[in-house]
Specification:
alpha/beta; globular; about 180 residues; six-stranded mixed β-sheet; single chain; Aminopeptidase
Length: about 180
């Protein structure tokens, strides 16, 4: 029906810092790449605006049971932590968990970084994530640790390949719920 793809941070919210860059710049660029590829494949897609907050985005969009909702982020910890993690809501169903598992498995495989698995939003530093209240198949994907130079280099080297794989996963789940 529709895919909703967002960067976890807007232009006035840098997010995590590391490896000489800002999280918002990385996830906005990656979101744009994924969205352009989805549109080229004929998928109806909505994305966040680079100047709106998460609250504004969530107020604007109208997800439904026939939606795939994905948000990109980058983790940061101590410059040594590595890997990718997928977060789902406390009320996640089988489709949410399967979608998240496919995303995190694919990301870990393509980037060659540890797979930190699918975790409940309760494991996030906020404990509860507004995105998880949206309808449809929902996941927040922590792509890699931005403050780990090796993770960042692997992401940069494999960004297009990862975008292609994520597009295929989004399209698969979008078709699943049509």
């Amino acid at each position: 029906m529709a895919a909703f793809v967002s960067a976890g941070h807007h232009l006035r919210d840098s997010g995590a810092l590391g490896s000489g860059t800002q999280e918002n710049l990385v996830v906005i660029k990656f979101r744009d790449l994924v969205v352009s590829k989805l549109k080229a494949r004929g998928v109806k897609v909505f994305e966040d605006n680079d100047n709106e907050t998460l609250a504004q985005y969530l107020q604007r969009i109208k997800t439904g049971e026939g939606s795939v909702v994905l948000e990109f982020h980058c983790d940061a910890f101590n410059g040594k932590a590595s890997g990718t993690t997928a977060l789902v809501g406390v009320d996640a169903d089988k489709n949410d968990k399967d979608f998240a598992k496919e995303l995190v498995d694919t990301t870990a495989n393509i980037l060659g970084i540890p797979n930190r698995g699918v975790q409940s939003e309760t494991k996030s530093h906020r404990g509860r994530l507004a995105l998880m209240r949206e309808k449809g198949i929902v996941c927040l994907l922590e792509l890699f640790f931005i403050d780990n130079p090796a993770d960042y280099a692997k992401f940069n080297h494999n960004e297009v390949k990862l975008a292609d794989a994520i597009v295929a996963i989004i399209e698969k789940y979008d078709n699943l719920i049509k």
